[in-house]
Amino acid sequence: MNKSIMVMPNGPYPTPLKLTDQPTVMIHVPMEVIGDDGVAISEQYPLVVSTWPFKEAVRAAWRAVDGNHSAVDAVVEGCSACEELRCDGTVGPGGSPDENGETTIDALIMNGVTMEVGAVAAMRFVKDGIRAAKLVMQHTKHTLLVGEKASAFAIAMGLPGPDNLSSADSIRKWSKWKENHCQPNFWKDVVPSDSCGPYHAKARIDVKEGGCSTRYLMGVAEPRSSLVGPHNHDTISMAVIDKRGHVAVGTSTNGATYKIPGRVGDGPIAGSSAYAVTDSGACVATGDGDIMMRFLPCYQVVESMRLGMEPRLAAKDAISRIARKFPDFLGAVVAVNKNGVHAGACHGWTFEYSVRSPATDDVEVFTVLP
């Protein structure tokens, strides 16, 4: 039998606990059976982990991986389901308009066995982000394609398009933002500061009499915009371990609401939004991608686990590295080691992530407090 218990950092409990101010960890005690091809299959697998309570996406990935599909294919099925459902309005078409009212797509897929990566960014006119990313991985020697050229590639490879990725809801949201003089936005140190532009750089003097500004002396970055939040700056980031123990990760997002056209967040950046190494494990992330991509938190998590750190500590360490420089940032990571042990850590918001494993009958949602 495949045993599982819920544990907290302070010890085991007789009943599962989901709400905690420390990351929750699920531990599986595995057994192995031999598959038809003679390869050992661990009963702790398969495993699907996703940011946020995107249960239908996790179920779609589970159906694929439990049906003996590869981790890569399961990630595609899971993220694609979220794109079709337009999870939280932040995945797939019809959400997160940029300053021009247009919706664009970022997506990534990574094979933790081969270390191959495919990604698309700022992709217009094509709604199937994760499938486009897989095509980049399968049929090119590149890692990342961007903008209209990514769209042309995806359409040439057989994906539907060109399509209008905006929706009535996204246009309505954008119109209200325009009526509010394009406030808030992602510009800084520009004039005019209280209208829709066009913007020009404002002369800025950081050196004050007698020395440098206090902010730079302290080594802490200036406060971030209030635009970043769980319902307007979201990503599905998913990790799958298949029955052979192979690991893959993938992401899909339509980015930050009211972003400056051309902006690319951490969604299509390997090591930031997601990372996988079959010999070590995987990491998935969500949050303020402009900040998080500067630290490559998922690379850090997987590398920490490779060096022997347990998932709970690896996740907390990666988040704390960012918070030291950006104390008001919002973000979260989930660490999954090669044995299927998982843990989450977050900063600035309450974070939830979803898990499906052989030990459960359906998707479980874990809550982590900052």
From TrEMBL:
The active site is at residue 235. One of its GO terms (biological process) is proteolysis. The record marks 234-235 as: Cleavage. Its EC number is 3.4.19.5. The keyword Nucleotide-binding does not apply. GO terms for cellular component: cytoplasm. Substrate binds at residues 263-266, 286-289. Keywords: Autocatalytic cleavage, Hydrolase, Protease. It catalyses: Cleavage of a beta-linked Asp residue from the N-terminus of a polypeptide. One of its GO terms (molecular function) is beta-aspartyl-peptidase activity. Belongs to the Ntn-hydrolase family. Heterotetramer of two alpha and two beta chains arranged as a dimer of alpha/beta heterodimers. This is beta-aspartyl-peptidase. It comes from Salix brachista.
